[in-house]
Amino acid sequence: MVSRRGVLTGLVALGAVAAGGQMLSISRDSRRYAERAAALRVPFDPSHEMPSLVRFATLAANAHNTQPWRFSVSEGKGGPTGITIAPDLSRHTPVVDPDDHHLHVSLGCAAENLALAAEAGAEREVEVAYAGEAEGVGITLGRAGSAVASETTQALFHSIPKRQSTRSVFDGRPVEASDVGRLRDAADAVAGVDTVIVTDRRQMTQVRDLVISANTRQMSDPAFMSELEEWIRFSPGQALEREDGLYAPASGNPALPAWLGELLFARVVKARSENARYSAQIDGSSGLAVFFADQSSPDGWIAVGRACQRFCLMATALGMKTAFVNQPVEVEAFRADLSALAGMKGRRPDLLLRFGYAPSLPYSLRRPAEKVMA
Ligand SMILES: Cc1cc2nc3c(=O)[nH]c(=O)nc-3n(C[C@H](O)[C@H](O)[C@H](O)COP(=O)(O)O)c2cc1C
Question: What predicted TM-score, i.e. pTM, was given to this entire model?
Answer without folding.
Answer: 0.95
